[in-house]
Amino acid sequence: MIENMLAMNKTNILGLAIIMVAVATILSSCHDKRSRGLEYAPNMYYPIAYNPDQKNPIFENGISAQVPPIGTTPIGFTKFDEFPNTPEGYTAASTGITNPLPVTKKNLVEGQQLYIAMCGPCHGPKGMGNGHIVELGKFPAPPSYSTGNSSRGGAMNQLTDGKIYHTIQYGLNLMGSYSSQLSPEERWKVIMYVHQLQKPQ
Ligand code: HEC
């Protein structure tokens, strides 16, 4: 008798559970499909400002993400247009720009770290043109900073801030440009360190 009652209870509980799930399903399906239900502090995730991908009635073309006006410079970006990748641009850079950073131990150490990572594989740890890629026989040796000659004329140890910056910006023959790997500030730190390597090693 008791066993029978337990069996009945189990059936009842199961039945009730099924009905509850069915009711919940029906109720929730009546809901607006786009609603996310109860929203806590909606101002936090519905910004008043337009999102870049949203339509925008303020602009004529109706787009929020506008292209910057011609002639403007993005924040943190340094223009180099006046020194094009030509022999004239190279010479103009030589006298036209100088390192804006002070020579400090910190800047030199950071410049050294960047140099070792970016330039050392070819130019070598001391700038002698014997980096490990060169030693493996995979790459022709760049001229030594302290004793070599530039293929553009003059001694490597006479290369100015602007000439080195121009080289980092555009590259030279087999050496590629490093403009996307090094920010202007990082380039100046590397240049500061290259000047150390131009001294007799
Ligand atoms: C893939 C190897 C390689 C890497 C990496 C490399 N260079 Fe060079 N670099 C060369 C070669 C080769 C030359 C000689 C190019 C020539 O004169 O034809 C050269 C030349 C130069 C010159 C002389 C430019 C001139 O006016 O004659 C400078 C300065 C220079 N590199 C700086 C750097 C700096 C700074 C870095 C790191 C940001 C760097 N290089 C990374 C291979 C490299």
Describe the structure.
This protein has a domain at 87-198: Cytochrome Bc1 Complex, Chain D, domain 2 (Orthogonal Bundle), CATH 1.10.760. The chain is built from 7 helices and no strands. It is mostly helical. The protein has helices spanning 2-30, 87-96, 105-118, 120-123, 132-135, 161-170, 184-198. Bound molecules: heme C. Heme C binds next to helix 4, helix 6 and helix 7.
> What is the typical, i.e. mean, pLDDT?
89
Give the low-confidence spans.
Answer: none
- The proportion of residues in beta strands is under 5%
Please estimate the helix content.
40-55%
- At the first level of CATH, what is the class of the domain at 87-198? Mainly Alpha
What about the largest sheet?
A: none
Question: Bound small molecules, which ones?
Answer: heme C
**Straight-line N-to-C gap:** 102 Å
CATH architecture verdict of the domain at 87-198: Orthogonal Bundle
Assign the structural class, choosing from mainly alpha, mainly beta, alpha/beta, alpha+beta, or little secondary structure.
mainly alpha
Radius of gyration: 33 Å
Q: List the total number of helices.
A: 7
CATH H-level homologous superfamily name of the domain at 87-198: Cytochrome c-like domain
**How many individual β-strands?**
0
Shape: elongated
Helix and strand string, N-terminal first?
HHHHHHH
Give a topology summary:
Layout: H1 2-30, H2 87-96, H3 105-118, H4 120-123, H5 132-135, H6 161-170, H7 184-198
The structure holds heme C.
Heme C is lined by residues 118-119, 121-123, 139, 142, 150-152, 159, 163-164, 167-168, 172-175, 178, 190, 194.
